[in-house]
Structures are given as structure tokens and as C-alpha cells.
Design brief:
Elements (H helix, E strand, L loop, with lengths): L5 H7 L4 E2 L5 E2 L6 E9 L5 H7 L6 E6 L7 E3 L1 H9 L4 E8 L2 H5 L4 E7 L11 E2 L3 E3 L2 E3 L4 E5 L2 E5 L4
Parallel strand pairs: 3-4, 4-6, 5-6, 6-7
Antiparallel strand pairs: 1-12, 2-7, 3-8, 3-11, 9-10, 11-12
């Protein structure tokens, strides 16, 4: 989906929500979008690991990591698995690692930053619950679009 331009989406759909600017674009796809699947976790990417192993065609995983800067919720192996399973991308309210490898992966990835430490695997987290950060509530089944200009959310596909 390289034809996504969030400024154009905002112009055409003035009612869509715009996430506060906070994310950097790390993935091999600069623009991506799709149906939202949410994960809520804190310094434990067990649920992210489970989800990237599922089919993700047309979907974007929105990960609420509580904004933690102490561990990475996505690394190169999980990013590669997500790409293999057709995920359009991930928007992570937290950190990632292996940024050079993820930048070469056919996957959209936006995150707060990078951190070299992996998370612990305790099996903690919630799947497909509403999550809120950046001034927006992300709901499973709604739609998200992201590019170098920002991230927008809509109740319906645009």
C-alpha cells in the first residue's frame, strides 16, 4: 500500500482521528494501513509473538506497550514472521530492536524508538481490547493508516 498519504486522507476525511506525533518509521514499508488488531502489554511481547504467527493480510497490529523505553517489543525475527504471514504493519507504543534488519523487511513498523534489550516472556497481555495513546483510542475492527507524515485512525476503511 504505497499510495497511502495521510495528509490526503485528512483532507478527504476531516473527521478521522490523528495520533499525536511521536512515532518513527522503522520498517521496509514507508506507508501502510489496514484493519486494527490490538495488543496491550508491558515489557512482555508474548502476545505479539503469538499474533505475528497468525495470518495478517489486510491487518495492522497496534501494540500498547505503555510507552516503555526499557525493552523492545519487536525484533527482527518477529518482524520477519509478521511479513511472512502477510501483516501490513505494526504501530508500537514502545520500542523495537534490530532496526537495520527491520528496515529491510517488507513490513510497516512505527515505534517510539529503539532499545537493544528484549522483553521477558511471561505470557502477559491482552488481545483485541481498546487501547488509548497519542490522544486516540484504537478499537479492534477500526482502520489505521500510517506514513512518514503521521498516523490516522478511522472507524471504516478509507
Amino acid at each position: 500500500m504505497t499510495d497511502i498519504l495521510t495528509p490526503d486522507l485528512c483532507d478527504a476525511h476531516p473527521d478521522i482521528q490523528v495520533v499525536e506525533p511521536m512515532f518513527g518509521n522503522f520498517g521496509g514499508r514507508e506507508a501502510f494501513g489496514g484493519e486494527i488488531v490490538t495488543v496491550k502489554c508491558f515489557e512482555d511481547n508474548s502476545i505479539v509473538k503469538e499474533q505475528v504467527a497468525q495470518p495478517g493480510k489486510g491487518k495492522v497490529m497496534v501494540v500498547d506497550g505503555g510507552g516503555s523505553n526499557r525493552a523492545a517489543l519487536l525484533g527482527d525475527m518477529l518482524a520477519e514472521k509478521a511479513a511472512e504471514n502477510g501483516w501490513e504493519g505494526l504501530v508500537i507504543y514502545g520500542c523495537i530492536r534490530d532496526v537495520d534488519a527491520i528496515g529491510e523487511t517488507d513490513l510497516g513498523v512505527q515505534a517510539l524508538g529503539s532499545h537493544p534489550r528484549k522483553t521477558e516472556k511471561r505470557g502477559l497481555g491482552d488481545l483485541n481490547v481498546p487501547v488509548t495513546f497519542g490522544g486516540v483510542t484504537f478499537r479492534p475492527g477500526h482502520y489505521i493508516y500510517a506514513d512518514n507524515n503521521g498516523v490516522v485512525v478511522s472507524e471504516k476503511a478509507l
